[in-house]
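DATA SHEET
Item: assembly model
Revision: 1
Owner: S.N.
Input lines:
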Amino acid sequence: MRVLVLGMNHRTAPLEVRERFAVADPAPHLTKLVACEEIDEALLLSTCNRVEVVALTRHLDAARHRLRAFFHRDLAGETPVQGAAALENLLFEYVDRPAMRQVFRVAASLDSMVVGEPQILGQMKDAYRAAVECGACGAILSRLFQSAFAAAKRVRRETRIGERPVSVARVAVDLAKQIFESFDGKTALLVGAGEMIETALEALRTEGLRSILVANRTQAHAEALAQRFGASARGLGELREVLPQADIVLTCTAGQTPILGVADFAEALRARHGRPVFVIDIGVPRNIDPGVNRLDSVYLYDIDDLAGVAAANADERRRETMLGEAIVLEEQQRFDGWLLALQAVPTIRHLRARAEAIRLTELQRALQRLSLAENERQAVESLTRSIVNKLLHAPVSRLRAEAEREEGLAYLEAARVLFALDDPDMPGAEAAEPAALDDPLRGALPDSEDPEDT
Amino acid sequence: MIVAIHQLTAALYLAAGLLAGVGLVLARPTLSRAAVAVLVAGAALHGVAFVAFHLAAEPPPLTDLPASVSLMAFLGVLFYLSLLMRSRLTALVVGVAPMAFLGAFFAALRLPHSEHVPFVGAASSWPHAHVLLASGGLASLAVAFLAGVVFLAEDRRLKAKRPMPGGLRLPSLEALDRVNAVALVVGFPLLTLGVLTGMMWVEGTSGRFWTGAAHETWSMVAWAVYGVLVAARFRAHQGARQAAIAAVAGFAFLLFAVIGVGLLT
């Protein structure tokens, strides 16, 4: 079984291409993919930053062609992306270990545009659920994704990868939380308008900020914004009047000179009895006199300050990715072991079948010669089963353990030779039928506990 | 046994401080919470030490310096734990635990080691009331001092626009300022009552409320300084930063006046 990942992400393809390939409902595509002989299991992950197909196959080359055709024909639609060759340059492909590593890294948000962002794990879980529901995700991909989810949780728990905000809006909220214990009962004053400042205000609202004042040069704009945020509108002329009420001041307005200076804040602070004010000035040129930051209880951050903190936080996250990569590698190796151990399943099943066939044959022969009561027959049968299980326990356990390593294949080969498992004339040979070997998960899983083993 | 309990208590406070330090640097909130749990265990054991005090000598010898320092550490921990129930101040355990450790360790070193050496008690109840109230006041103001130090460090960092180093996560400035205010509201009246009961104690032994001893003079000066600080904070609506500076400077002076002068003279 081979694992194949084919797709595009924010590093290989621009947004205008990624949005064309985005898939709202993966189920029909997955159903179609697993209906092909060359794809055994598949999962389609589509987010704003990536479109990836993870496939399990026994025929790697055929699966590669099938998935490429899927991107070229099914997802690209009728207008190809600057010709087929151009699309080919936007796709990446990973096989086996690198493919599994890609799944683990994506789940742990190590491959994200904003490293450590938490949304990707939820998106992957949704994709996994969709694949399971439409029957495209079987035992092996399920195990792969469950392992990746566990690794992602470990990375989040054991590193600080997601702790520091890296967007300007979230940095502003984080700073406000370092000044104020809660936003309950606090008032924000929004002066001007702009996407970034409104995002910051929205983020503050989600943290519990309720009281908002909006001031704008034009009363109509102020009222429109006030309506949007459930706030009360004021004209710019009232700014000094309402300033003492504001615990958080957000400004982003056009103008060549600052609209609020040191004297304005000094007066406001007197009215506020020294209670702190957090000022976020995103205006360029700046709307607030930088000297305001020298006043006690006023914390002024302009756009460069916020961007500086965001950059420092991003550096901190990047440092944490090294720890995250180590965790991912550890968890991936664990999954590798499980996958390798699957190779032992047909041999173990065959060995058991051989032993059981011999046991039954010899038991039958012995019972024909003996005249035993029913309880005595049961005792003998139990005895033979117990002997077989005890004899097999050590070699089977060893085969399972060794199969988790690359070198374990030699043990499997030795077992097949020593017990003549490839001899079709020996009892129990039907367990080695191709259909049985193709599905190693049918029957004994390597980590399942068979009560009759001991 | 009392010394042994103090040694064990000091060890628990030290462990809490170390856990809190590691938790703060590595940004592991679970370690900080574990530090609080160890601090609670230390406080419980510290309480047992005072029960043992009570059983060892009647009336309890709280007027000894080691015992009163131990009591101050114990009340400081209790005051912090009571604040912790209302605000997110887990990170402050990193300062409270070492302060408590110093108090318990000092007591473990200076308390009499033999069970047969009698503790020097006092005949009237004024000395004990004085030590209890003054220790409570000092403990509260010590917590205000700690909150003030953290406030000033955080204020400086936020003004300089530096990101929080490593994975540190400290209480907000607002929470620290509230701790300062509550500690002052609790601590100053206790200190005032401590001064008054101290005067009653002096009157009981010398027939005068005031003997002019250095310890008494400095304590009165420290009380007056705190009176000014309280007035500045609550009447003149002093800003949070000035209040933090006042808490730090005021406590340093108080410590010198109450303990330093006693050790020097």
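QC remark: Chain A touches chain B at residues 160, 163-164, 175, 177-181, 269, 273-276, 293, 296-297, 299, 301, 305, 308-309, 312-313, 316 (CB under 8 Å).
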